[in-house]
Amino acid sequence: MADVPAGLKYTKEHEWARVEGNRVTVGVTQHAVDALGDIILVSVDVKPGAAVAAGKVFGVVESTKSVSDLFSPVTGTVVAVNEALKDAPEKVNESPYDAGWMVVFETAGTSAELDGLMDAAAYGAFLGSL
Fold first, then answer.
1. Hey, how many other C-beta atoms are within 10 angstroms of the C-beta on 116?
2. Which of 113, 110, 105 lies closest to 47 in space, CA to CA?
3. Could you tell me the maximum CA-CA distance found in the chain, to the nearest angstrom?
4. What's domain 9-110's architecture?
5. Is the per-residue pLDDT at 1 higher than 80?
6. 124 Cβ partners below 8 Å, 6+ apart?
7. How far is CA 89 from CA 4, 66, 110, 122, 123, in A?
8. CA 111, CA 73: separation in Å to the nearest integer?
């Protein structure tokens, strides 16, 4: 599936997580982008150094259609925020899995949380059930 890249983990809230060692980069999926329409604002409400628990809101994304909360798929400490999205939120529409990433977490012992996320095949099946 073109809009469900392999190698990422996915949530039922349509966030993706790219795991690289203890770092987890998070953004929203192509499905979320398609559902939201043109994104006009990305507001990440956490700063580097902040602790965020899995399932907690770390920001919002606003489109011409609606406003949606962004949920952390893991527990961790924020190490980076994609500041470019403040001035160019359209990067999420153009490249949700690359330039449109939102936040990077440093995790410790979150394998159970990561194991609870869907792989590409499971997320594709989930989308098919909607």
1. 13
2. 105
3. 38
4. Beta Barrel (2.40)
5. no
6. 1, 4
7. 21, 14, 29, 28, 25
8. 11
Model's pTM, two decimal places?
Answer: 0.94
CA torsion angle 10 16 21 22 (round to 10): -100
- Residue 80 confidence (pLDDT) above 70: yes
pLDDT in tens, 23-71: 999 999 999 999 999 999 999 999 999 999 999 999 999 999 899 999 9
DSSP track, 87-111: H-THHHHH-TTTTT--EEEE-SS-H
| pLDDT at residue number 70 | 97
Q: Is the pLDDT of residue 19 over 90?
A: yes
- Nearest C-alpha neighbor of 5 from the set 38, 27, 35, 36: 27
Q: With 0-12 CB in 10 A as exposed, 13-18 as middle and 19+ as buried, what is 121?
A: exposed
User: What is the C-alpha separation between 123 and 58, in angstroms, rounded?
Assistant: 22
Average pLDDT value over all residues in the chain: 94
